[in-house]
């Protein structure tokens, strides 16, 4: 028996065991995003004298989804949503038009090589999805608001859980819905919060919304076996301003206040209506109210006769308003007050006159 030196043995072994015929390679595992196109490919290496006669692709259920003969390009047979993406001497790739949840699994590429016989490759696809949400929302106090989140791989979801993080940073559970079909709403939210019975498109409705509902809401899809998938969107709650004006007259100077309570604070602008000019300067002060709203008071001083000549308005601007609200300094009440003041002055003068006449 002749013995060989170890490096030579290794070389002999490699040469003797190396395939002398076609070989298929393909990536073992790939991740594809739900709803997007994806390409799967296999490579085949052939030796001299070997001819590739036919290529077949089988889907996750071992059904043929694509089938062609490289030498007869016209004879392609493919299923809906699957296309031949690449057909070269050594590569065959298929494109999935839009990845669906059911596309997950292993695909087989089958190469019929003459005269060697059939060669197979396998490549496995796992489908991933992200939680979608409409993003941050604003709501008006007293009105309903719905927050929603979607996750495409519904059949993997075991539970949907909604949590709320208030501005101060503490997080509480709001509601949950499980695969078994039970909805749980925490006691503190029970009278105003509803959760939809859906594992894919989850909707949390608050009706009516209160200022203390402001905060960030996280929807958490507990999936198996992918783990937790979540998304956070913040809710801002507005209180709309209802501006009011009041004024007092001192000789011929009017001091007017425009007052609006809102959240966040409104901006108040004084102007002369139908004219392109603002009245100024005005003094603005704001006061925090206990309920999360702010009272803004804007004060101006103006000549009393301006009130008779022009319509003076206070306009409240607020991001929650579709159109800003204007209120007028009421001229009719103004004339009443002037008449009253004139009346008082006349009365005083008459009394003085009487007193004078009696004394003199
Ligand atoms: C297949 O071949 C291409 C080049 O032709 C290469 O880029 C790719 O990485 C190969 N894939 C595998 C799985 O071997
Ligand atoms: C597909 O065929 C392979 C063997 O070729 C087998 O192991 C596998 O279980 C089959 N899959 C299905 C879903 O029938
Ligand atoms: C949503 O609101 C939060 C807090 O108000 C903020 O940090 C975040 O950037 C906002 N996100 C978007 C997309 O506007
Ligand atoms: C206007 O507001 C100030 C305080 O901001 C108050 O002192 C004043 O009495 C108010 N005047 C009127 C006419 O309401
Ligand atoms: C408003 O004022 C601007 C300048 O402040 C002027 O250019 C414009 O013509 C004015 N428009 C009207 C309608 O008066
Ligand atoms: C009132 O609102 C409109 C938009 O709705 C805005 O363009 C306009 O500037 C506002 N008026 C004033 C006085 O700022």
Give a brief rundown of this model.
By secondary structure, the protein is mostly beta strands.
Write the layout of secondary structure elements.
Blueprint (H helix, E strand, L loop, with lengths): L5 H12 L5 E3 L3 E5 L4 E8 L5 E8 L5 E6 L2 E7 L3 E6 L3 E6 L8 E10 L2 E12 L3 E2 L3 E4 L4 E6 L6 E9 L5 E8 L4 E3 L7 E3 L5 E6 L8 E9 L3 E12 L5 E7 L2 E10 L4 E6 L4 E2 L4 E6 L5 E10 H6 L2 E6 L7 E4 L2 H29 L1
Parallel strand pairs: 2-10, 12-20
Antiparallel strand pairs: 1-3, 3-8, 4-5, 4-9, 5-6, 7-8, 9-10, 11-13, 13-18, 14-15, 14-19, 15-16, 17-18, 19-20, 21-22, 22-26, 23-24, 23-27, 25-26, 27-28
The protein binds 2-acetamido-2-deoxy-beta-D-glucopyranose (NAG) (6 copies).
Total of helices: 3
Cofactors and ligands present? Answer: 2-acetamido-2-deoxy-beta-D-glucopyranose
Distance between the termini: 160 Å
CATH homologous superfamily of the largest domain?
Immunoglobulins
Helix content: 10-25%
Description of the structure:
The protein is mainly beta and 360 residues long. It contains three helices and 28 strands. The strands form six sheets. Strands 2-10-9-4-5-6 form a six-stranded mixed sheet, with no helix packed on it. Strands 12-20-19-14-15-16 form a six-stranded mixed sheet, with no helix packed on it. Strand 23 (267-272) and strand 24 (277-278) form a beta hairpin. It is elongated, with a radius of gyration of 40 Å. The site of one 2-acetamido-2-deoxy-beta-D-glucopyranose has 6 residues, from loops.
Highlighted features:
360 residues, mainly beta, Immunoglobulin-like, 3 domains, six-stranded mixed sheet, 3 helices, 28 strands, binds 2-acetamido-2-deoxy-beta-D-glucopyranose
């Amino acid at each position: 028996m002749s013995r060989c030196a170890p490096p030579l043995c290794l070389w002999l072994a490699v040469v003797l065991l190396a395939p002398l015929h076609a070989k298929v390679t393909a990536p073992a595992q790939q991740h594809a995003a739900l709803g997007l196109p994806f390409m799967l490919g296999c490579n085949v290496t052939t030796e001299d004298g070997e001819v590739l006669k036919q290529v077949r692709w089988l889907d996750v259920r071992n059904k043929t989804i694509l089938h062609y003969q490289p030498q007869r390009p016209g004879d392609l047979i493919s299923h809906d949503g699957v296309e031949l993406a690449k057909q070269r001497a050594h590569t065959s790739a298929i494109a999935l038009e839009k990845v669906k949840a059911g596309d997950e699994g292993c695909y087989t590429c089958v190469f019929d090589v003459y005269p060697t016989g059939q060669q197979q490759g396998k490549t496995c696809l796992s489908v991933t999805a992200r939680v979608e949400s409409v993003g941050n929302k604003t709501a008006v106090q007293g009105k309903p608001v719905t927050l929603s989140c979607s996750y495409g791989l519904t059949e993997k979801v075991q539970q949907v859980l909604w949590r709320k993080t208030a501005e101060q940073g503490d997080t509480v559970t709001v509601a949950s819905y499980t695969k078994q079909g039970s909805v749980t709403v925490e006691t503190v939210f029970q009278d105003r919060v509803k959760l939809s019975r859906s594992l894919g498109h989850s909707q949390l409705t608050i009706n009516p919304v209160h200022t203390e509902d402001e905060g960030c809401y996280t929807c958490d899809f507990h999936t198996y076996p992918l783990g937790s998938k979540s998304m956070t969107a913040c809710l801002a709650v507005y209180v709309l301003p209802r501006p009011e004006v009041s004024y007092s007259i001192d000789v011929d100077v009017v001091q007017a206040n425009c007052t609006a309570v809102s959240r966040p604070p409104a901006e108040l602008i004084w102007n002369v209506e139908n004219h392109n000019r603002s009245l100024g300067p005005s003094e603005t002060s704001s006061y925090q109210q206990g309920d999360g709203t702010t009272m803004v008071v804007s004060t101006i001083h103006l000549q009393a006769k301006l009130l008779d000549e022009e319509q003076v308005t206070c306009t409240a601007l607020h991001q929650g308003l579709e159109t800003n609200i204007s209120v007028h300094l009421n001229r009719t009440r103004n004339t009443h007050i002037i008449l009253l003041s004139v009346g008082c002055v006349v009365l005083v003068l008459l009394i003085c006159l009487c007193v004078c006449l009696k004394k003199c």
